Amino acid sequence: MNRLLSANFTRLIKDKIFWLSMIFMSLMSVYMIVMRYITTKQHGYRLYLDYGFFNYSIYAVIVLSVFVSLFVGTEYSDGAIRNKIIVGHKRSDIYLSNFLVCTAVGFLICIAYIVPTLIIGIPLVGFFETEIQTILLTGLCVFAMTIAFSAIFTAISMLNQSKAIAAVITILGVFLLLFIGIYIQTRLDEPEVYDGYSYSVGGEVVSVEEEPNPLYLSGTKRDVYEFLYDFLPGCQSVRLSNMIAPDPLTMSVYSIGIATAATGLGLIFFRKKDLK
């Protein structure tokens, strides 16, 4: 395992996609903080460092989906995985070494956004308005969520020998998960009732009483949506980008559970996979 990890990290240092990912996240962080500063100056109200700080929870998983599919896919296209098996490496070690490297990259991508934001953002817009404990717990959730996404992307890429197919599945998959997150958030935000209001028609005032919202989720259905809102990685990504993490420990446990399940299933099928 140590030799495999060493070889993977050596390849990582030379990987152009990795460095492009890091540069993209760093530039995105600089762009976001500069635009926040410009908005603050133009409109005369202050946007603290909190505002948009955790947007990287969405950017990172999109970038990571591209990186993992190409990094792992290259091992198939170059015949590296078959060669590793031929020289005596266990399939489980090969799989786990790729997963660990991809997870490390996920962390580094997040850090590539966080560090420039802190260095440039604190002098320009000031420190966080939110309590630092909340910031740290939200950050913990983001990193736990990154592990879950890394496990999912690694499983997909390790079980598909075609780099192109793996890239399509992971990229479309992450956008689907994010769309589901936005949809669930929208449904949960529906008000229970529509407020009453009044309007004038031909000089006559017409009043409309408050009425129930047919789209409001209640009972068991709402409980299911709320569970999915906490559980699904795409939902977590959307929530964390808005700093909505009322129970960060539970969300982190869910992420680790998903990572464990995805890695376990990936290992089972990879051991049985016929490598052509």
Keywords, separated by commas or semicolons:
74% helix, two-stranded antiparallel ribbon, single chain, 5% strand, mainly alpha, 276 residues, 4 strands
Quickly count the domains: 1
Order of helices and strands: HHHHHHHEEEEHHH
% residues in beta strands: 5-15%
Q: What is the overall number of helices?
A: 10
Mean pLDDT across all residues, rounded?
86
Number of strands: 4
Sum up the overall morphology in one term. globular
Low-confidence blocks of residues: none
Oligomer: single chain
What about the largest sheet?
Answer: 2 strands, antiparallel
Overall SS class: mainly alpha
Computed over alpha carbons, the radius of gyration is 23 Å
Structure description:
With 276 residues, the protein is mainly α. The chain has one domain (2-182, 240-272). It contains ten helices and four strands, in the order αααααααββββααα. The protein has a two-stranded antiparallel ribbon. Strands 2-3 form a two-stranded antiparallel sheet. It is globular and about 85 Å long.
